[in-house]
Structures are given as structure tokens and as C-alpha cells.
Specification:
This protein is 40% helix and 17% strand. It has one domain: Alpha/Beta hydrolase fold, catalytic domain (Rossmann fold, 3-Layer(aba) Sandwich), CATH 3.40.50.1820. One of its GO terms (molecular function) is aminopeptidase activity.
């Protein structure tokens, strides 16, 4: 299989770690990982077999994963900056049009790219999308109460207050794990893949996005402006995205919703066969 690994400069300040794999003349797909920060490593491990007939661009977003670190400057970590990186990368690779396949937080730059650069977007696939961080903060607050066996209560409207209360007595990872993983097996497999990558975490992207107001970010109003109808894929047991966020994206954008029964935030781990079937709708759009 063809594989080209490179560090590609997208402007005078930013370089991205890029893996360009598969037949060069096949329909191209760019894969956007979640985060902010992180790496495409786990996504490639999970998606590579299903995407084997396509040209796939895996890359680590600016300042994170295997991409060169950046200074902790807020101006470097915005949604607009991520979108501009994508368009610069497309131009550098001399790709005319491509499909976008995004997971979690990656849905926001993917949606904004498709909104701004619709002519360059063949199709849009969103796996377990996060598009409203105030809504996610409320989910985390409610989950923290349940994990402490406390009675249900309305979440504070201020997302930072909701998070502060949620994380006051519980580690953030414990709450996220409870919402994202329907089984210990799935959590352990994800952590085994993530830790096996040997990629040191870089907290700068996440810290700077939070500084820039990540938890007030709600992309929902812009969904009505999309000219590309996404395929939304979500696990029925993903407490971070289903049902509210995934259903809202599909409804407001005119897209389709593929619910993967028994899966959490990483459906290719929890229910690989059902996920592969859901992914086909996105792949079919690339070939039409």
C-alpha cells in the first residue's frame, strides 16, 4: 500500500504531521480527529481497513500529536485557523475535491470547512459529533450527579459553572469515560491503542481553545447554512453526542442519521460491523 509520511508547512508558522495513504487516483478523504489536540493515530487504526480503497489523508491538527508544537498563543488556536489549515493542506497536496470524515470535536472544523468551501467538499461524514459545548457541559454535570448517587438537578446555564461543579469531586476522565464507553472492554481497547501509539500528549491546544471560550462554543446556528448534507454516525450509548447533538446536526443540516446500536463514542471499537455498515453511506457519496 502506498504511504507517504511528511511534515507539511501550511503557513509561515504552522506545520502538520501528515500520512497520505492509499491509491493516489482514488477518491480522497481527509480525517479529522477529536480533541482539541490529540492525534489521528487511533482513528487510522480503526478506519484503515474500511477506507482501504480510498486515498486517505490522516493528519494531526496544529500544535498537537505528532505535529510540531506551537507557542501558547490564543490566536493560533481557533476554529478559523483549523479550517485554514485544511484548505492550505488541500492546496499543498494538489487535491481538487475531497470528502471530510470527522470525529468528536473534529466535527466543528469539518462543518465550518464544508460551509466555507462547499465546492471543494465531496461529502461530509461526522462520527459522534460535538457541536454544542454548552450542551456537553450540561451532560457532564448530570453525569457527575449520577456517578455520585445524587438526585438529578438542573444544570447551571453557565457552562463553566456546570463544569466546575461536575469536576469538583470527580476527575474529568471518570465522567467522560462513563459517558463515552458502554463497556470496560471498549475503554481498555481504546486506551491500549492510545497508549500504544507512544505519542506524548500536548496540552497547549486544549488549554488555548478553553481560553478562547471553547465551552461557550455552539455551532448549531450555522447548521442551517450548510450546502453539504452530512452523514451523521453515532452510537446509541454515546452519552456525549446522542441523542441531542447528533439528531440536531442531522435535522438542521438536512443530513442523514445512522444510529449504531450498542456503541459509544468510538463505535468502530464497540460495534465494528454495524459501524462499517453505517460508514458505507458516507463512502457511497464519494463515488457518486
Amino acid at each position: 500500500m502506498r504511504e507517504e509520511i511528511d511534515i507539511i508547512a501550511v503557513n509561515d508558522e504552522v506545520e502538520l504531521y501528515v500520512e497520505d495513504v492509499g491509491p493516489v487516483d482514488a477518491p480522497p478523504i481527509v480525517v479529522l480527529h477529536g480533541g482539541p489536540g490529540g492525534s489521528d493515530y487511533v482513528l487510522r487504526e480503526g478506519l484503515e481497513e474500511e477506507l482501504g480503497e480510498f486515498r486517505v489523508i490522516y493528519f494531526d491538527q496544529r500544535g498537537g500529536g505528532r505535529s510540531p508544537a506551537l507557542e501558547a498563543e490564543p490566536r493560533l488556536f481557533t476554529v478559523d485557523a483549523l479550517v485554514e489549515d485544511l484548505e492550505a493542506l488541500r492546496e499543498q497536496l494538489e487535491i481538487e475535491q475531497w470528502g471530510l470524515l470527522a470525529h468528536g470535536f473534529g466535527a466543528i472544523p469539518a462543518l465550518e470547512y464544508a460551509r466555507r468551501f462547499a465546492p471543494n467538499t465531496l461529502s461530509l461524514g461526522l462520527i459522534a459529533p460535538w457541536v454544542s459545548f454548552p450542551a456537553l457541559a450540561k451532560r457532564l454535570f448530570r453525569a457527575s450527579l449520577a456517578l455520585r448517587d445524587l438526585p438529578a438537578a438542573p444544570a447551571p446555564e453557565d457552562p463553566m459553572l456546570a463544569l466546575g461543579e461536575a469536576f469538583r469531586l470527580l476527575e474529568p476522565k471518570a465522567i467522560f469515560d462513563a459517558l463515552m464507553f458502554p463497556s470496560e472492554h471498549g475503554r481498555m481497547e481504546y486506551e491500549w491503542l492510545s497508549e500504544g501509539a507512544g505519542i506524548l500528549g500536548n496540552d497547549t491546544p486544549g488549554q488555548m481553545f478553553v481560553y478562547n471560550g471553547l465551552w461557550e462554543l455552539d455551532y448549531t446556528p450555522h447548521l442551517l447554512e450548510l450546502r453539504v448534507q452530512p452523514v451523521v454516525m453515532v452510537g446509541s450509548l454515546d452519552g456525549t453526542s446522542y441523542p441531542e447533538q447528533a439528531e440536531t446536526v442531522a435535522d438542521l443540516s438536512g443530513g442523514s442519521l445512522e444510529v449504531i446500536e450498542g456503541a459509544g463514542h468510538y463505535p468502530w471499537i464497540d460495534q465494528p460491523a454495524a459501524f462499517a455498515q453505517a460508514l458505507q453511506r458516507f463512502l457511497e457519496q464519494l463515488e457518486t
